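Sample pair:
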Amino acid sequence: MPEFLDFLKHKFAYVARAEFKPGKFDEAEQLFEKAVSTYKDGFKGAYLLQEPGTDKGIAVILWESAEKMEANQSEALQDIIKQMTPLFAKSPATNFYEVVSEIQPDEE
């Protein structure tokens, strides 16, 4: 029964949509990877998406729960965010979502 209950637990996703100053996406990518490396308990994965040919992107960070995400807010993370802030062309739009459906490909 515990496996079934684990199956019913949903992940949560922190999503940030951002546009960086011209030519700054690569630097932002390095800082994103550095920030993600600070995450520990409750972290379930991360994606950084870039709109081809632009400095626009979307970051998706998956968490076990909102509480686990909050618990990972560290001084090291805040320092990285301070380094990233001047790279933005404008403030990013952020939201927090519950992952209600996750479909994995069939393995053959």
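The first helix runs from residue 2 to 8.
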